Amino acid sequence: MLTRERLVELFQVLRGRDVLSVYVDADQRDPAQRDAWRVTLEREVSRLRRTLEQDRGGDLGGFDSAWALVAGLLRTDEHGSMSKRGWVAFATPDRVWHAGAVPAHMPSSVSWQKGIRAAPYVRALKQQRPVTVVLVDGRRARVFEQVEGVITELQGVLADADLGDLTDVGMRKGSGRSTGVRGATTTDQAQRLREVASERMRKSLADLIDARVGQNGVVVVGGPAEAARKLVQVSQFLDVTVLLFHAGVVCPP
User: Fold this and answer.
1) Are 123 and 133 found together in one domain?
2) What is the DSSP string of 189-205?
3) 162 lies in which domain range?
4) 1 with 7: CB under 8 angstroms?
């Protein structure tokens, strides 16, 4: 699949030339419809060719040459199998500049215009960006990752504070019994331990997300607003899009 940089390069190089842009929707789950894309593609090519025949200023010969190159690729095993969800080709009358499968749904279309038709490919590139969803509170975080439409739950992170006997009275019964530390009660000490554990959890979680997302991902953080914002504050999400999701509303980080 083309990178964003390579797509921009092709767009600039071919800006003033007649280019055939072919997009094929091969996302057919019914085996009986596996080759339906061929019928749709041939119909689109015929429609465009009739339009060019009626247009005296249209370069019908250039179109036919470019289509012959693309059709030749589609007849080969490598490009004809459509093992992924879509297929794209950009060609001029003298050469194919790019052809290959993409793991994203493509609208079947054929265009003959100045420069490549890039908009559908840009949408496909956006689908390739990893989306990481984090549900976090003060004790636990669940992490999900979506790539190419597939959602996977990653290993979660837990706050590791073992309050043990310290909270038996102070937290469960609320007695406020002294710990022996001047000015501190069991409740105060347990709260401090819980905050330290939560902070450690957030740092571990931020490191995990930073390592997986890279520079072009999207991170959606959900959960209690305070816990979500604290996670963002300790993270290094410098080049990714971050959204906070709380009570059904997307909030600014």
Assistant:
1) no
2) HHHHHHHHHHHHHHHHH
3) 129-251
4) no
User: CA 243, CA 231: separation in Å to the nearest integer?
Assistant: 12
Distance CA 145, CA 50 (A): 46
How many separate domains does the chain show? Answer: 2
Global confidence as pTM: 0.56
Do 202 and 178 form a contact (C-beta atoms < 8 A)?
no
Contacts of 44 by beta carbon, 8 Å cutoff, 6+ apart: 108, 109, 110
Instruction: State mean pLDDT over 134-143.
Output: 79
Q: How many helices (H) and strands (E) does the chain have?
A: 8, 10
pLDDT of residue 35 exceeding 60: yes
Asked if 141 and 35 sit in the same domain, the reply is no
Pull the structure tokens for residue 2: 């083309």
206: how many CB neighbours lie within 10 A of its CB? Answer: 20
Tokens 């093992």 locate to 83
CA 59 vs. chain centroid, Å, equals 38
Question: Are 143 and 155 contacting, i.e. CB atoms less than 8 angstroms apart?
Answer: yes
Residues 6+ apart with CB under 8 A from 25: 37, 40, 85, 86, 105, 106, 107, 108
- Among residues 81, 79, 70, 75, the alpha carbon closest in space to that of 34 is found at 81
